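User: I'm curious whether this sequence folds into something compact or stays loose and floppy. Could you predict its structure so I can see for myself?
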Amino acid sequence: MVKEVEVLAKLSEILDDDLVKEVEVKDDGTLFVELEKEIDDVTLIKLHQELGKISGIRNIEIKLPRSEKEVSENVKLDEKTVLEKLKEVIDPEIGIDVVNLGLIYKVKVRPDKTVYVEMTMTTPGCPLTMWILRAVEDKILEIPGVKDAEIELTFDPPWTPDRISPEYKKKLGLY
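Assistant: Here's the prediction. I'll summarize afterward.
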């Protein structure tokens, strides 16, 4: 079982102590860290990588603060709009957007205008996981009418090249 004191020690190597709002280690090995302030992408990636080195950590959730925004009730918001916006998030190692790469498993627009996305990475050890998750969240929040975004990372089922869209399979010569 991972001890909270071990996590706090690792966090203090990377972040100022006043940046950490909450830390919780769940019985299933999930680590939840809530931060007081935004951090840059480089620090976010480093934080994720270093926390992932702690023995017993199976999943890492990092919550960053964001300001509330006004949501108009008259805006039409649907899954297709969200998927189109997510095509702007390119996996920098592969050069394909997260939708055509097949990383997006599920999109739901809830009645309160919160967008839920279930997604994966090409590998559980992807060094850019936190950057991609943040980019997905940021793009969703750019859509007019979206109140909030909830991104869930899963590796069940694991990603395979079969998930790449037919169009990109042709471009990559996989057909």
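Summary: Residues 4-63 form a domain with the GMP Synthetase; Chain A, domain 3 fold (CATH 3.30.300.130). Residues 90 and 96 are 5 Å apart (CA to CA).
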